[in-house]
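2024-03-11 09:14:02 INFO receiving multi-entity request
2024-03-11 09:14:02 INFO entity count = three
2024-03-11 09:14:03 INFO echoing inputs for audit
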Amino acid sequence: MLSFITRRIAAAVGTLFLSSVLVFLAVQALPGDVATQILGKDATPDAVAALREKLKLDKPAWERYADWVGGALHGDFGTSLVSGKAVGGEVSTYLGNSALIALVTVLFAVTGSIVLGVLAGLYRDRWPDHLISTVSLVGMSVPEFVVATVLVLCFSVALPWFPAVVLYGPDASVGQLLPAVWLPALALAVVMAAYIVRMARTSVIDVMATEYVTTARLKGLSTWRVVTRHALPSALLPTLHVIALNVAWLVGGVAVVENVFNYPGIGKLMLSSVQNRDLPTIQAIALISAVVYVVCNLAADLATMALNPRLRTRGRTR
Amino acid sequence: MTPIVSVNSLSVAYRSGGRDVPVVHEVSLDVAEGQTHALVGESGSGKSTVAATLLGHLRHGSRITGGSVQVSGADVFALPARELRGLRGGTVAMVGQNAGHALTPSMRIGRQIAEAGGEVPVTELLAQVRLPNPADLARRYPHELSGGQQQRVAIAMAIAARPKVLVLDEPTTGLDVITQRSVLDLIAALSDELGLAAVLVSHDLGVVAHMADEVTVLRSGRVVESAPTRQLFAQPQDPYTKRLLASVPRLDDTGLAVVGEAGEREVRPKAEVPADAPVAVSAQDVTIDYGSTRAVHGVSFDVRRGEVLALVGESGSGKSTLAWTLAGLRTPSGGTMRHEDGDLARPAQQRPLSLRRRVQLVFQNADTSLNPRRSVGDAVRHPLRFFGTAADRPEAAERARRLISDVRLDPALADRLPAQLSGGQRQRIGIARALAGEPDVLIADEITTALDVSVQADVLRLLDDLRRERDLACLFISHDLAVVRGIADRVVVLRHGVVVEEGPTETVFADPQHPYTRQLMAAALEPDPDALPYVDDTADWADAADGDDIWTDHGADGHRVRRWRPLDAPVAEGAL
Amino acid sequence: MTTLDTAAPTTVRGARTARAWRTLSTSRTALIGLAIVAVHIVIALLAPLLTSYDPIANDANHALLGSSWSHWAGTDQYGRDVLARVLYGGRYALGVSLAATLLTVALGTVIGCAAALRGGWFDDVLGRILDAVLSVPSILALLVVVTALGTGPSVIVLAVAITFVPQVVRVVRGAALAVVPADYVTAARARGESTWSILRREILPNITDVVCVEFAMRASWVVLLISSLSFLGFGADPPTPDWGLMVAENRTAITVVPMASIAPIIALATLVVGLNLAADGLSKAWGVDRIREGS
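2024-03-11 09:21:47 INFO inference complete, emitting structure
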């Protein structure tokens, strides 16, 4: 079991290393001279040379990679080409704002979707299932910006309960941002929940059809006991991975929604840094997204292991 | 005395594609208290469906179309949900086929037994099913137990609330013969001890003869015949029952049984293998490893043309591993395997085409051995073209039709998909596909295990005919001693990857020397309620082979036994 | 034992088509979904016949009109007929999405099958690399590629393929892994057949259903992603008629001309619902839902 954990963590580190190489290479592979790209065609040669110096473009690629990763490990992602501030600090401010949305989203989406998914699975092919399945299908089929737009129409324009756009900058306090968190979080939760509902439903249906659930029923147990003790522990395990994937997806998903609400989060920073070709910031965001993805998956794997006796007791003799 | 279970002209239908498909048709049976009633039939006979109705359980999509089921005076399907729950477990309990699937993987065994209700403490129940260290076992999870232990746990769970009726649905089908015997003995002992009535569902007539007081034979959802066990096995009335009984291979058959339309039985003598028949495959000291575990330790054997050599053993004995290695699907880690055309120790991709086509494998499970998306004709045609045994398409088509008729099937079936054939037909196509390479060595890996007993008899006879016609060297892998007795010329008994006894079939069966062989034979169940065990005494033993001194010879015909000694005696008996 | 002697079909190919059709026709969901997608395709192809307005030409005199007989869905801020732009908009969405999905699924199927069949280090290394690609949010990867290489349709197709291939590989690999241990694959191996021939003859025919479902579902994701990209201003270049772009352009005037935003939303949502219904229905009818949900 310990060796399993070590191997799994080693794999995660390996993936992170590959991701960092990939991110680095992708940015390197941008066509043309990066300095000219950033400054535009009519930049003075002096300015280009200065920028090349700043980006250390004269050094070989592997050395620049080592510098970058070495710095990143200490929280130093270089300086933003646009604001001139340290990328690390800037990204973490924006990330913190997004974390507020993410937290609310995950809370809504996970609890709601598991309840609905399990219900749909238990009432398979009856009206609660049809209703929940249809709603989740629609939820999956509508892009985030549409959900966000509709929410603004309903709860900012028709019923002025929540602000339609955020008027504060990235340094706003939690108290200032809090009223603006709910609509973006709801928009994201709708899309995210749709996937988890479907996964939970299939997995509940699968488990309810197993022989051990039939055996439990034929033991004369009540439906409640059969579901909670025999079916759910096995049924919810595969759902964990989908939740992890969706949490990781949030990092990208916020881009659109934050843009709709003008919310000062990581998605907005991502968009503006792409528009401004702020390479150090793009690299930092990509690397941080990769870390979130890898950590979420690792957490799901370890949680699965902790909850699955077959994996937990591996290595114990018969 | 009123029966405790009474099924009255029960009919069950399954809804499929908008219409009702009857699966059980007007079945009636009564079980008296303390009696064991067996439901016998081949697959699709509806026997499991009938058994499950005793607990008020129907498969998703099935419904009762007539009749009733009464258990202990209550009409099961008229009970309100709450009382039905009380009936389940309290009055009727079930033991299913595969305990590995029937136990919840995420729950400790003790809790699963405890929630079945009843007053009896869990440890006492576990002790009652003869499991060692009950207190420790109760804290374990199902996957930490062996198949036999899991089945015992399932039985403990069933008897927890002290029910009056036990429904046993193929309770020992997945188990090895020795484990099966001990589980059956346990069930019989518990039924006596607790005064249980039992409904036993089985396809195995040996199990039924051993366990049941009364037998009902089912076929396609209808009752064919119902009688007390002794009477049914001594004087079966219906031709179907007669044929079924006659098809079961016996440990004392000296050849394959040929069964007539009316159920008459004739044992066909085995073909003589000429003394000068050339050796087709020769294996010397073969060892095979799976990672760090050794599956086969130093096994040697020769197979001659026209001869059937049987590898016999329980699961985990390494017999299938050997077969797959010969077929080139694994690489041995030591020893030699030779065919006159080349080295068989190399994997298939590295063997020359001429060698690959001459050693062919037939699989255990005919359902998965044919590509479901390709016609069976295509399955035979493709190797013909691949091995170059047919020059062009028309010839391949023609040869494929001939091969299909060679395995006693209508060549018109060539256009069908595997799903449109029966299990026995699919297995014949599997044999035809193997024959397409014009092999001289055929490896048959448990080819009749998944088949019903009457189909098994046909496929065995086909195999026997083919080796006569084509002078095949046949390596026959099986766990079933009675089948081996009928078809094999020589036998090799494997245990944990080691050969414990080998020799001509007749000699080994007439005078088994190794205690393990004797144990296997003693555990085998014959389709006769009055049959005495094939061998009576089995000793506790320990391996005594060391270094070069491995074998004890018994006669000049190659019958030899691995050295062993009785456990309580210090001197090796085989060494005398 | 039962022999299924149902009306014997004359040829296997005929039987296969018949079977596929039979399962399809039992699934109302799949039929409705496919019908919706078909309607979208027909509209996109026949757009010039369905409307006489030019979807691109500006007409400042008729800007921001409400619904009327001449402009059913009103006009946008540049005076273009919204309905015409919605009808033409399907061309971009469907064209780019279908091309991207085809490329993604084709690549993913080949790589996934190869990974399942070869196994060993190849599978391990591939798994790591795909995981690394997956770890970067697809929208960020797309944004970077598009800013670097421009917003041409071919660039978007390629970028979408790169970001979505890993997920297809995972699903196909899972499905193929279920087929690889089957005895008929083992039999082909024992005959010593080449990897490619085993793939083509034994494995691919048995995972076509999974691949079809994967195609439908992936297409719905691609449509969503591409429309999001357009919405953010990184996809279709104005004045190309595109639904995502239209929502972005007309959102500010949503209180004035609601139809200008709602019409493209409806078009987009129905297309994706159609694709999802098709994927759902097919996977249920073919019994492949289990393999798919694992993605």
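2024-03-11 09:21:48 INFO post-check: Chain C has one domain: 2-53+75-293.
2024-03-11 09:21:48 INFO post-check: Residues 1-10, 290-295 of chain C have pLDDT under 50 and may be disordered.
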